[in-house]
Amino acid sequence: MRVVEKRQLLSAEEINRTLQRLAHEIIEKSEGAKDLAIIGVRRRGVTLADRLVRSIRAFSRADVPMGILDISLYRDDLSTIGPQPSLQGTEIAFPVDNRDLVVVDDVLYTGRTIRAAMNALFDLGRPKRIRLCVLIDRGHRELPVEATFVGRDVQTSDTEIVEVRLQEMDGEERVVLVDRVP
Amino acid sequence: MQRLSHLLGTENLTREQITFILDQSKPFQEFQRYPLKKLATLRGKTVAVAFFESSTRTRISFTTAAARLGADTMALQAESSSVKKGESLIDTVRTIEAMRPDGIVIRHASSGAPEFVAERLEIPVLNAGDGTHEHPTQALLDALTIRDRKGGLEGWNITILGDILHSRVARSNIHLLTKFGARITLCGPAMWVPRELENMAPGLRCTTCIEEALEGADVVMVLRVQTERIHEPALAAEEYILGYQLTAKRLRLARPDALVLHPGPMIRGLEIDPVVADGAQSCVLEQVTNGLAVRMALLYHLIGGAPVDAPHPAKDRSNASD
User: Fold this and answer.
1) Is the pLDDT of residue B17 over 80?
2) Which of A9, A79, A90, A114 to substitute to test the interface with B, most B CBs within 10 Å?
3) pLDDT(B296) > 60
4) In whole angstroms, what is the distance from residue B55 CA to residue A18 CA?
5) Fewer CB within 10 Å of terminal CB in chain B, N or C?
6) Which pLDDT belongs to residue B84?
7) In a domain, B2, yes or no
8) Which CATH number fits domain A11-74+89-156: 3.40.50.2020, 3.65.10.10, 3.40.50.720, 3.40.50.2300?
9) B26, B313, B318 ranked by CB distance to A89: nearest
C-alpha cells in the first residue's frame, strides 16, 4: 500500500489567508467574544487553534483563552485499530461551564472525532454552546455533525486522504490530497 | 518499544517501558480532578479482580480504576470463595476465564502465581502483588510520585526502611529505581536485611544502622512491619520503634527536601512517627491518587484495544494522520 500525492489543495499562503479569514469570522459571529474559548483537538487542531488565537489577539486585542483536547479516551474505534493510542492529555485551564466554545480541527470527515470531542467536553462541564471550525471539510459524514466555520470544502473519494501539513509539525506548510494505491 | 501484554513485575521492564507508563499516567492524574469521573473507554470490557490475599487499598484502587474507565469488574476474594474449599489456583482461574473477562488483576500469597496464570491464559494479567516477589504497580506509583515531586527520576539516594526480606514492595522498587541510577540503601533489623540482598543490583548496600542509612537520603521509603507475614515473633514493637522508627529527628539526617513514602497502611507510632506521616515531606496521599492514575493507565493500555498483532480493519478508514 503506497501513498501517492494527487494534488495540492492549499498552499502555505492560502492556509494563512484562510486562517485569517476564519479568525475574523469567529469573532464576527461571537457577539463580542464574551465567553468565547477556542479548543484545539490534538494534534493538528492544536496548532491551528493556536494560530487562530494569535490572529484574534492581533486584530481585535481580545484575549481568547485556548484549551487542548485529547480525545483518545473517547474514540469509538479503539477495539478495532490495534494497540491503544498513546495519551497526550487534555489541558483546559478554565472551567467549561457556560463557555461559548469553538472546537478546532484540521479535517472534518466522518464526524466521529468531533462526537468524541463533544463527549470529552461534556465530561468537563456544561458549555453554553459548541461550534466547530475546520480547515477542510471533505464530506462523507457518518454522524449528524456540521462545521460552522469552514476553510474550504473539498470533494473526496473514500480511498483518498487529506493531509494537512503544518510547519511546526511536518516541516512544511501545505494541504495535499493523497491517494492510497495498492 | 515493545508493548506490554502483561504486567508481572518491574524486573523485566525496560526504562523506556517504565517511562511510557509514567507518562501515560499523567492524563489520568488530571482526570481525577474532573467533576465527572466516568469514561466509556473500556465500556463492555470486564476485568476479573482476583485477590487471594487480603487487601483493601489495592483492590479498591484497581476496582475504581476499572470502573472509571467504564469497565465492569468481577470480584473474587479468597475469604468468600471456593479457594477456601481447597480448589487449586489454576482451577479457580480457569473457572474465571470461562466467564470470559478481558483481563485479570491478581494478588496471591505465592510468589510466581501471576506468571503461572499468564502462561496459561489468553488474557492480559496484572500482578497486584505475589508473595514476597513483586508488586509492580506500587513501584510504578512510587516512581511517579518521586518523579513529580522531585522533577525527575534519575540518580536519587533512596533509603528503604523495614522488613526488606519479606517485602515485594521493596523488591519491585529496587528493580525499577536501579534502572534509573538510584543509589539504594536497605535498612532494618539484621534478620530482615540479609547481605545477600546486595546482589540484587549494583550499588545496593545494606545496613542495620538507621542513622547511617538516612544520611543524605533524597527519598525515604518506610515499609510496614508485616506481622501477618512473619511466622516467628522476631522483634518486640518497642525494640523496633527504638531502632527503626522514622522519627522527625531521624528524618533531619536526610536531605532537607527528602520525600517520605509509605505503601500503606501505616501503623502510626510503630514504623513511622505520626508527625512525619502528616508532615510536609510525606507523600502518602499523593501515592494513593497516583496509584489510581497508574492503574488506569495500565488497564487502558493492556485491556483496551485489540491484541497487539491483530489485523486492523478500521485503521485504513481514518483520515487521522496523527
Assistant:
1) yes
2) A79
3) yes
4) 59
5) N
6) 58
7) no
8) 3.40.50.2020
9) B26
d(C-alpha A117, C-alpha B144), whole Å: 28
Q: Does A117 touch chain B (CB under 8 A)?
A: no
Between chains, do A80 and B39 touch, taking CB under 8 Å as contact? no
Nearest CA distance, B42 vs chain A (angstrom): 9
pLDDT band of B316, cuts 50, 70, 90 = very low
Q: Do residues B277 and B149 share a domain?
A: yes
- The domain of B193 spans 136-284
Say whether A124 and B34 touch across the interface (CB within 8 A).
yes
Q: How many residues appear in chain B?
A: 322
Q: Is B312 helix (H, G, I), strand (E, B) or coil?
A: coil
Domain range summary for chain A, segments of one domain joined by +: 11-74+89-156
Q: Give domain status of residue B180, yes or no.
A: yes
Q: Which three cell numbers stand for residue B245?
A: 522508627
What is the band of B3 on the pLDDT scale with cuts at 50, 70, 90? confident
Confidence of residue A3 (pLDDT cuts 50, 70, 90): confident
Amino acid (1-letter code) at residue B56: T
Over residues A135-144, the pLDDT tens digits come to 999 999 999 9
The mean pLDDT value for B42-70 works out to 94
The number of folded domains in chain B is 2
Q: What's B265's domain CATH number?
A: 3.40.50.1370
Q: What's the pLDDT score for residue B321? A: 42
C-alpha B21: how far from chain center: 13
Alpha-carbon span B171 to B159, nearest angstrom = 13
Q: How many residues does chain A have?
A: 182
